[in-house]
Amino acid sequence: MENIKNITILTGAGISAESGISTFRDQNGLWENHEIEDVATPEGFQRNPELVYKFYNQRRFQLSQDNIVPNPAHMALAKLEREFSGSVLVITQNVDDLHERAGQKNLIHMHGELMKMRCVASNKIYKAPNFFDGDTPCPCCQEAGNLRPHIVWFGEMPFQMDKIQSELLNSDLFLSIGTSALVYPASIFYRWAAQGGAKTIELNLESTVASDRFDENFQGKASELVPGFVEDLLSGNISPEVS
Ligand code: APR
Question: What's the first-to-final CA gap in the chain, in angstroms?
């Protein structure tokens, strides 16, 4: 039997839910309380930048509270990266920094990062202060109004898609953790991984629109499912073969 050498892992808001960060589409989620068109599109930012700055300033403020810390699922994935004999890549749709705070190094933030801002003139990326808005002068051009959240909005291209696609095609095992699988292109990553011959496994609180397309499914809370799954992987108890 071949061994698992390359693992790619897609994470979504569900992995951070137990750290106290709202998901998007669950009851009382971010999109139940805000209009996507207003706060998560380039057009919304053009129409009402102050609303968009405020939305992300509030979320950044929440993320910086002492009680928001990585949970056992983030910690387990970081342990997997440290201890697994092959390669582990986490591709996250999350804009929080909980994976890196847990110690994850090989990490792609495909939808951007809440703790960063970007100059629209130079495309330079900076660590974001707690609050910034249309009056904040940009560190590179000194212009007010040139800074935007370093977030991929609807209608924009996620980051590092070429690398993501080649890593997925090259993986032996693909895990999808805590995502509703409703947002393209992350919603089809399982397909690229399967094309490359990977076994595909979904770990989520509930079944999703994509569940029956995965080779295996596990349902439960990420903080409870992921640590046990990682221990099984590290001890060689997960077979790369599709049963
Ligand atoms: N453990 C595991 N899964 C959970 C947990 C938990 N504790 N809590 C919720 N979930 C699951 C939900 O059942 C749901 O299927 O996590 C999923 C979260 O789905 P969404 O809220 O749609 O979040 P996500 O899939 O990350 O959204 C994708 O949409 O709006 C955009 O850019 C935003 O990156 C985001 C993208």
Answer: 13
Single out the catalytic residue among 74, 99, 111, 150.
111
In what order do the strands lie in the sheet containing 87-92? 107-109, 87-92, 6-11, 173-177, 199-204, 216-219
The protein residue with its alpha carbon nearest to ligand 1, atom 25, reads: 179
Phi, psi angles (nearest 5°) of residue 19: -90, 0
Q: Indicate the pTM of the whole model.
A: 0.97
Residues of the chain with pLDDT under 70: 1-2, 243
Rounded Cα–Cα distance for residues 70 and 128 (Å): 20
The Cα 19–Cα 25 span in angstroms is 17
Q: Is 109 a catalytic residue?
A: no
Angstrom distance (rounded) from CA 92 to CA 196: 20
Cα distance between residue 88 and residue 11, in whole Å: 13
The pLDDT tens digits of the residues spanning 111-147 come to 999 999 999 999 999 999 999 999 999 999 999 999 9
Tokens linked to 88: 């582990």
